[in-house]
Design goal:
Elements lengths: L1 H9 L4 H11 L4 H9 L7 H21 L6 H23 L1
Helix pairs in contact: 2-5, 3-5, 4-5
Length: 96
């Protein structure tokens, strides 16, 4: 999991996007927000969820950089919020 957290730490995104994600992560509720982003059903473990969210975010970032008209800033921020919150939960579980 440390490699996963290292990969997350290495991401470089616009400061405003990350600031919005950090603020939004305070109100993150896994059981409500995660299924909406990665699909309904049984919730995956934190590491698996974070990996899936990172894949989604990479696609959204590619759309943002290419100027794709289908790009959704709101969805991008939602995914970043979930990534930040899941990373916090994962770090906390490793520390315990």
């Amino acid at each position: 999991m440390q490699d996963l957290l290292s990969m997350l730490h290495a991401l470089r995104r616009p400061p405003l996007l990350m600031r919005a994600a950090r603020i939004g992560a305070e109100d993150y509720r896994r059981s409500v927000h995660l299924p909406r982003l990665i699909g309904y059903g049984q919730l995956p473990r934190h590491g698996s969820a974070l990996l899936k969210l990172m894949e989604l975010e990479a696609e959204l970032n590619a759309q943002r950089l290419s100027g794709d008209t289908g790009y959704s800033l709101v969805r991008h921020v939602d995914v970043l919020i979930a990534m930040v919150a899941e990373a916090r939960i994962l770090r906390a579980s490793q520390a315990a």
